Amino acid sequence: MLLDYKDQSEIERGFRFIKNDTFGLDEVYLKKPERIGVLMAVMTLCLLVYGITQYRLRDALQRNNEVLPDQKRRPTSKPTLLWIFTLFSSITMINLQETERNKRIVLNLHPFHQKVILLLGDSARKIYLLPDTLNQQDVVLNQKTWLRWCGM
After folding, report:
1. SS3 of 62, please?
2. Closest CA to 119 of 47, 53, 33
3. Helical spans, DSSP H, in 20-104
4. Nearest alpha-carbon partner for 113 in 130, 99, 100
5. pLDDT (tens digit, 9 = 90+) per residue, 6-22?
């Protein structure tokens, strides 16, 4: 029972993002209980996706014996997904509509981003248009390069 109680903090940490100003929920005003319930269902689904993605990234880091720099410039194999989102905020995706087809361009994709995308798997690779021939060994980064890129 004590272990279950201690694990409760993990759950509380997950729901903390609902109160975070980053997601702008303080600007949403809903009066009907049904709409509040729907919003909470959507946010819970978002929390599920967030948790699964963070787990997959951390698992891939441990399996590949990789680390990422955290906010305090220390290498970690357990980064938060919010930190990764912050580092990915410089990426720009442009969708161009040509006469009969659409074209996507990904800008500001650095080796750091490529490394994380490859760790997340084929779905992320397709979203960010990384070639199938690119693999982990092709993206070589050392800790100094990570920190310099992150502006640390």
Report:
1. helix
2. 53
3. 33-63, 81-88
4. 130
5. 777 766 766 676 666 66
Task: Give dist(CA 42, CA 146) in Å, integer.
Answer: 34
What's the pLDDT at 67?
87
CB 47 within 8 A of CB 15: yes
Mean pLDDT of the 59-71 span: 89
Tokens of 85: 């989102």
Q: Looking up tokens 């990904």, which residue turns up?
A: 106
> Helices H, strands E: what count in the chain?
6, 4
If you average pLDDT over residues 49-61, what whole number do you get? 92
How far is the C-alpha of 15 from the C-alpha of 46, rounded, in Å?
10
Please tell me the total number of residues recorded for the chain in this structure: 152
Written as six digits, the tokens of 49 are 């996706």
Instruction: Kindly provide the residue ranges of all beta strands, DSSP E only, lying in 39-134, ordered along the sequence.
Output: 68-69, 75-76, 92-97, 102-107
What does the block give as tokens for 117?
């995308």
